[in-house]
Backbone:
């Protein structure tokens, strides 16, 4: 879905307006040139009792990128996401999201962050007693209760269709959908408020390879069209190769490397080497090379 | 979350060519209301809309413009967007324009259809309950042949939850109801100078009816709902399917321990309920009716027959069976959603309470006709 498919003719007239729209980024996102990260984590420590998950972890997410977070099971990928989202209070460290302090107790700031982040949980986390359409309308009602019903409905329909679901899915309950469709419905709800920042927790886990590839493509398309920054936790090597701009590897309680995948592959760390040079990684690389 | 640099959406006519509109400002979700107003006040006879001056655009803005174009019967080609917005616009424009069918039909035939479905469903539920009763009985019998299937730990666990934990509640309720019956009865009997008959009133009503009925109603509310919710949550998390695939029988594992627990505990609780109901009567007698406990007990001893107690107690196992079966069956019929668990729990409480009362009425008539 590139601009070329559009029927809209760009006019020759140069843009005569202030900065933000000059790149195709989301309005609230700091511009790429500013060099400011959209999410910045400094010195994060997370402990569960005796068990230390993160120690002095640093991570920057640049605006407009898809960053893939990888790491073995139990290395705290989800814990990191939950800390950034404010669902878990870390023992130490600073987290900044969209220029706001994510660990603040200030309700207005917290709400501003929540309003501007979309989250897709592992199994969609749809409200099981609401239809897909009602699920998508929940954040709209909460933050924009004054919208006319018809517009809210149209908006929900649009988001559902943008997420690649048929219009009929709008009136279905989550239990009537397949796993892949539930993820798409969860994505539609995450996109309801046009957030600049999207968190995806293993979006392709449990999908068949074709469905997973389609979901990868959907994420890429939406990211480009809506100017999103995507924080993506995954185990899926295909996803890493297909859509991630940078890959951050969590091992030994911190981010050991965060770079484009070609550089990460070469990084000298036992886990990284095993991960990127195992049989499955070779297969993923071959697919990528064949398709490019 | 509107930052200060944003301007509200605005529509201006392009000076020399009035059929050309210029859009500026923020066309985003935060300004959805103003976008609606601005577009509502837009003049007619437009042949070009220049949206290149829009600072911020999100899917709401595009959607509103699309709706405006549809209303004003404009081709979407008349819009010109800034190039940075084109990916968004074309993504939204490319989405197929199909709509879902209406969720619910209205009208007489639809109402009739719903009524028919409801009747049919009720019939099916009644059949399911009878079928479930048969299945459970069979599996209970099989347990005598294969005692290894019996789960003593689960049974005792449920006995504690169902029986022991309910003792304070049942005792308190029955004590109070006993006191109230004695009090109200005495008020009327006093007019006939027959206040001492309060003893018979309380004893007969508690031994024959109230003891078992109150216990059954408390357990229907407390235990049937718990059974449904416990089993329902397991069904919705596919745990029951897991039990089946592991070669175990959910009836053996989930239903029979609960049923046996209730079969043992409901008669015991009924006995406790009777004692506390009688105590309630005794207390009121002693403190406000001038019937000393010795006299009360002596009168009870003279007038009461064992059959009243047996009539009351005989009903307890039947109610126990009913409550446990309805609770478990409703739980097993849960379908996936949290809402379904809630609906089934409500339904199990309503069904078991009403069935208890209906059956109790039948018992009362039957025992009376039989002369017991």
Residues:
């Amino acid at each position: 879905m590139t601009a070329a498919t559009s029927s809209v003719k760009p006019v020759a007239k140069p843009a005569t307006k202030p900065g933000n729209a000059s790149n195709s980024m989301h309005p609230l996102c700091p511009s790429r040139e500013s060099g400011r990260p959209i999410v910045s984590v400094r010195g994060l420590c997370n402990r569960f009792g005796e068990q230390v998950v993160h120690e002095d972890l640093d991570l920057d997410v640049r605006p407009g990128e898809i960053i893939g977070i990888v790491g073995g099971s139990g290395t705290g990928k989800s814990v990191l996401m939950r800390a950034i989202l404010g669902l878990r209070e870390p023992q130490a460290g600073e987290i900044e999201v969209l220029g706001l302090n994510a660990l603040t107790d200030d309700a207005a700031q917290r709400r501003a962050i929540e309003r501007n982040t979309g989250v897709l949980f592992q199994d969609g986390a749809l409200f099981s007693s609401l239809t897909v359409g009602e699920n998508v309308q929940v954040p709209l009602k909460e933050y924009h209760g004054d919208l006319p019903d018809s517009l809210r409905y149209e908006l929900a329909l649009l988001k559902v269709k943008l997420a690649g679901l048929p219009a009929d899915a709008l009136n279905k309950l989550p239990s009537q959908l397949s796993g892949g469709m539930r993820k798409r419905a969860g994505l539609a709800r995450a996109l309801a408020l046009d957030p600049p920042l999207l968190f995806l927790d293993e979006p392709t886990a449990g999908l068949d390879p074709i469905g997973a590839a389609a979901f990868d493509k959907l994420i890429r398309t939406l990211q480009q069209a809506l100017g999103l920054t995507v924080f993506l936790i995954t185990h899926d090597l295909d996803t890493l190769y297909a859509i991630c701009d940078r890959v951050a590897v969590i091992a030994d309680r911190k981010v050991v490397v965060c770079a484009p995948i070609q550089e990460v592959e070469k990084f000298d760390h036992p886990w990284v080497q095993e991960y990127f040079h195992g049989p499955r990684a070779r297969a993923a690389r071959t697919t990528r090379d064949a398709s490019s | 979350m509107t930052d200060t640099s944003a301007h509200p959406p605005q529509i201006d006519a392009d000076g020399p060519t009035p059929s050309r509109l210029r859009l500026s400002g923020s066309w985003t979700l935060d300004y959805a209301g103003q976008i609606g107003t601005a577009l509502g006040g837009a003049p007619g006879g437009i042949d070009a809309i220049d949206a290149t001056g829009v600072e911020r655009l999100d899917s709401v803005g595009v959607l509103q413009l699309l709706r405006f174009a549809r209303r004003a019967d404009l081709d979407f080609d008349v819009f010109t967007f800034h190039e940075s917005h084109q990916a968004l616009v074309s993504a939204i424009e490319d989405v197929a324009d199909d709509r879902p069918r209406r969720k619910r039909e209205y009208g007489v035939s639809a109402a009739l259809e719903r009524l028919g479905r409801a009747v049919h469903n009720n019939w099916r539920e009644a059949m399911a309950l009878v079928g479930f009763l048969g299945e459970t009985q069979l599996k209970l019998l099989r347990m005598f042949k294969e005692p290894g299937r019996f789960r003593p730990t689960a049974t005792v666990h449920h006995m504690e939850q169902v029986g022991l934990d309910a003792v304070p509640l049942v005792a308190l309720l029955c004590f109070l109801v006993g006191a109230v019956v004695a009090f109200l009865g005495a008020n009327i009997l006093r007019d006939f100078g027959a206040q001492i008959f309060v003893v018979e009133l309380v004893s007969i009503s508690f031994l024959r009816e109230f003891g078992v009925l109150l216990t059954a109603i408390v357990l229907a509310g407390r235990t049937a709902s718990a059974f449904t919710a416990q089993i329902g949550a397991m069904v919705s998390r596919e745990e029951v399917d897991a039990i089946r695939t592991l070669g175990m029988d959910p009836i053996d594992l989930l239903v029979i321990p609960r049923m046996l627990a209730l079969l043992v505990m409901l008669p015991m609780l009924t006995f406790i309920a009777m004692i506390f109901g009688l105590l309630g009567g005794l207390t009121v007698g002693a403190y406000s009716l001038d019937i000393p406990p010795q006299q009360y007990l002596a009168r009870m001893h003279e007038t009461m027959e064992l059959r009243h107690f047996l009539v009351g107690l005989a009903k307890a196992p039947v109610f126990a069976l009913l409550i446990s079966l309805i609770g478990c069956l409703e739980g097993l019929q849960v379908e996936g959603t949290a809402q379904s668990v809630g609906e089934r729990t409500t339904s199990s409480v309503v069904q078991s309470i009403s069935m208890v009362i209906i059956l109790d009425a039948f018992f009362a008539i039957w025992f009376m006709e039989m002369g017991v």
Observations:
- Residues 1-23 of chain A have pLDDT under 50 and may be disordered.
- The longest strand of chain A covers residues 51-61.
- Chain A touches chain B through 61 residues (CB under 8 Å).
- The two ends of chain A are 18 Å apart (CA to CA).
